[in-house]
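Troubleshooting entry. The earlier prediction with heme C gave an output that would not parse, so I re-checked the input for stray whitespace and re-submitted. Clean input:
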Amino acid sequence: MKREIVKRVLFIASLFVFFAFAFPTWEIPEKYQKVKNPYPDKGLETGQKIYKKTCAVCHLADGKGNDVITPVDFTEDDFQKQSDGTLFYKISEGRKGTAMKAYGDDYPEKKVWYLVNYLRSFQKKNQSSD
Ligand code: HEC
């Protein structure tokens, strides 16, 4: 009887683990999502320098990413629709269990914001002429 319960609990637990891997979410604390960018549009040159030196290895110079390392594509709307605060959080904290490390350990906040601003430059320019 007890064994059955243990089995069931283990089964349910394994489902959680499975779904966590199959449909990973990157939890962003709400207070970060809403943080205002203190340096909007600033530091693009610095951002670009750091990006080329540090980030392009995985995310490539065009921001579309090395498919083997990451499916992330900075030119996609799904990426760009995230708030500045969310991107700031992701760059600062990184994601455990992936190659994306916590760059907040390497760069002061100001430079992380510059990186956020630089990532915006990958946004698909509005091609239509309206
Ligand atoms: C060693 C490889 C590697 C390097 C270097 C790297 N990243 Fe990443 N990055 C990743 C991977 C892998 C992910 C996807 C993590 C996941 O969600 O599985 C990621 C995800 C991200 C995301 C979130 C993407 C999304 O869809 O929301 C941002 C933003 C990001 N990286 C920015 C940077 C910046 C800025 C730098 C440089 C300071 C950098 N990364 C350096 C591997 C890297």
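This one parsed fine. The chain has one domain: 26-120.
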